[in-house]
Design brief:
Elements (H helix, E strand, L loop, with lengths): L6 H15 L4 E3 H8 L3 H19 L8 E3 L4 E3 L8 H10 L2 H11 L9
Antiparallel strand pairs: 1-3, 2-3
Helix pairs in contact: 1-3, 1-4, 2-3
């Protein structure tokens, strides 16, 4: 289903998946960038966007699920909090243009077209 997501959302899912696989809460931006083959700028940008999305999706007042710390040099994802990667992907999928198109085509009953 990832093919239905925009490039930006795929990058966020890729980052989230990578961070969830780590055995530590803190990881350097440089390490993430090298592992994913991304530039420092792309890594920081995607991390900030993902952090905002996680705040919106999980909508709670506890410690943020992802934060960029120490002047954009470290990413922090607390080990005590669980983030479901599939649930985040489904939120992105629900907002994608591909999903909207497929849903419209699947549930189309032909009544809006006078030829049928």
């Amino acid at each position: 289903m990832q093919w239905m997501l925009e490039k930006k959302e795929n990058e966020k899912i890729e980052l989230l998946t990578f961070l969830r696989e780590q055995l530590t809460a803190d990881i350097s931006v440089k390490t993430v960038g090298e592992a994913l083959g991304w530039s420092k700028y792309l890594t920081i940008t995607v991390a900030h966007q993902l952090a905002e999305d996680l705040m919106t999706i999980y909508d709670d007042e506890e410690e943020p699920l992802l934060s960029v710390q120490q002047d954009d040099k470290m990413l922090h994802m607390p080990m005590s909090r669980h983030v479901n990667t599939d649930a985040v992907m489904l939120v992105y999928l629900r907002e994608s243009l591909y999903w909207t198109f497929i849903k419209e085509a699947f549930f189309d009953n032909g009544q809006h077209n006078p030829q049928y």
